[in-house]
Amino acid sequence: MTATDLFDPCEFNGLRLQNRIALSPLTRTRSNDAGEAGPLQALYYAQRASAGLLITEATPVTPGGRGGPNIPGLWSDDQIAGWRQVTDAVHAKGGVIFSQLWHAGRLSHSGFNGGHAPIAPSVYRQPGQVFTPQGPQDYEEARALSLDEIAEMVGFFRAAAVRAKAAGFDGVELHAAHSYLVDAFLRDMTNKRTDRYGGSIENRARFMVEILQAIIEVWGPERTAIRIAPIGHAYQAWDSDPEPLFTHVVERLNDLKVGWMDLVEGDTGVSRTAEPSFDLQKLRRLFKGVTIANNLYDRDLALQARADDTADMIAFGRPFIGNPDLVERLRRNAPLTVADPRAYYGGGARGYTDFPTLEEETA
Fold first, then answer.
1. What pLDDT shows up at residue 267?
2. Rounded to 5 degrees, what angle do the CA atoms 251, 247, 164 make?
3. Active-site residue (options: 180, 197, 297, 352)
4. Is the Cβ–Cβ distance between 18 and 94 less than 8 Å?
5. Is 352 part of the annotated catalytic residue set?
């Protein structure tokens, strides 16, 4: 194998990592109806604890922040104990794990929130359907948050960050990508506000900045991460001029000394390039923290990225589903198990924690 540091121990922001490979957030919808993690999630993440950094599935900060059923949350103190089982199991294997804090915004449904309409920066009706406990339902018209509600939402993110610390996580990542609530504030297609949270780039980034400031009060900047997808077109939404927008975003991350940037290089799980309107390496060069490159990486691309130093770490998503020991398989260039997509979401252990390691296969 060509010499590489992809598999070497490293240290970033005071955290000692086993390697430069990250588990990308993967929604698996295995929680109970109360949105609690438990032994099943603990086993799942512990099986994958050989990754240098684990980032959890998107974890809603309010009941109305869910984008589907059976997603474990951090909107209630009752959810802390289940996540503590997860972090304890990961730490017992020598792993490091961040919680990804999330609000789905307009991509939620009233069925998750006592009949209340989903929320967004501006009134917006998303085409298509969302999967709810009652099955697929049309997206509903989202209502615009008031100024008081925006301040309250920042408080919800802060409270979830406090719970993440109580649950034993090593840090948190703010989900600010894929047209969910924070990303919807950033982009001019989904943010039509005329107050201090709309219009200019600075105003559209204000909500993100305020949430990051609240998280940093709890965690400090070195344990605070953010996921962005500058050239993504998730849910048919984008920005008319992403380069100045995300240049400003990264400049603000630097002002706040945010420690980690999870940079999705295209439309997640669909395209690596998506006809990029600008060179994302500009953002990597600008950002002063750790850059995690993300989106459809395979072994060769990861090795090349480290050889070219285009990212500090490389995230893998779907390959981790069927390969709990993905790091070792990549190290040996061993065959990978391809998981059945029908088992991605919902159900129990099958298609979740029942994939063998290389050692178990050979035994």
1. 74
2. 60
3. 180
4. yes
5. no
In which order are the strands placed within the sheet that holds 141-144?
Answer: 119-120, 141-144, 124-125
Residue 111, amino acid: G
Please name the residue ranges forming H helices in 57-205: 80-92, 147-166, 181-186, 201-204
What pLDDT is recorded for position 287? Answer: 98
Angle (deg, nearest 10), helices 206-219 and 242-256? 30
Per DSSP, the chain holds a count of helices (H) and strands (E) of: 12, 15
Tokens 């994302």 -> residue: 280
Q: Which residues of the chain have pLDDT under 70?
A: 1, 268-276
pLDDT at 271 (0 to 100): 59
Residue 139: alpha-carbon gap to chain centroid: 22
Residue type, 177: A
Q: Which amino acid is at 211?
A: I
**Alpha helices of the chain — where are they, by DSSP H?**
39-47, 80-92, 147-166, 181-186, 201-204, 206-219, 242-256, 281-286, 299-308, 319-322, 326-332, 358-362
Exposure on the CB side of residue 77, measured as CA atoms within 13 A? 0
CB 122 within 8 A of CB 193: yes
At 269 the pLDDT is 61
CA separation for the pair 323, 300 (Å, rounded): 17
How many residues in the chain? 363
Per the CB < 8 A criterion, the answer to whether 177 and 226 are in contact is no
pLDDT for 273: 54
